[in-house]
Amino acid sequence: MGRTDYLHDPAAPPANSVVPSVVAFVQNDAGQVLMIQRSDNGRWALPGGGHDVGESISDTVVREVWEETGIKAEVVDLSGVYTDPGHVMLYDDGEARQQFSICFRARPAGGDLRTSDETTQVRWVAPADLADLDIHSTMRLRIEHALDQNRVSPYIG
User: Which of 64, 2, 7 is nearest to 36 (CA)?
Assistant: First the structure.
C-alpha cells in the first residue's frame, strides 16, 4: 500500500484517523543508526509502526523493530512525542492519518539484519551519512532530537 506525506500543505486531505504509533532510534555501540527503506514510499526512516491492543508501548517498539529489521531491541528512554495535526499521511486505501508518533531511543540486543514486507532495505548508517538518504523532514526531526542525548522525554507538539 502506498503512502503520501503532507506537511502543512493546503492540498492535504482532511484526517480521518489517528493511530498511536512509535518509531525507534536504535543506535549500536559504533554510533550507527538503524534505518529502513520503506516499501510504501521508498523513503528512509526509523523502524516503527502502530500500537496494537493488548501491548505496552515499549512492547510495540520491540515488536516493530523486530518485524521490520530482524534486530531485537531494548528500549532505553523516550526521545519525543510528535502530534502535529498539519502532518497527514494519505494511504492508498483512503485512510488519511493525523500524525501521532512517539520516538524512543533503543539499543540492539541481538538478531541479524533482514528486510520485511514493509522494508526494501535495512542498514546501519553513520550519523554523518544520514544527510545522503531521502528522509522526510518530520523523520529527520525525530533523528535530530534522538541524537541529542541532552533531550529527555520532551513533548514536541
Answer: 64
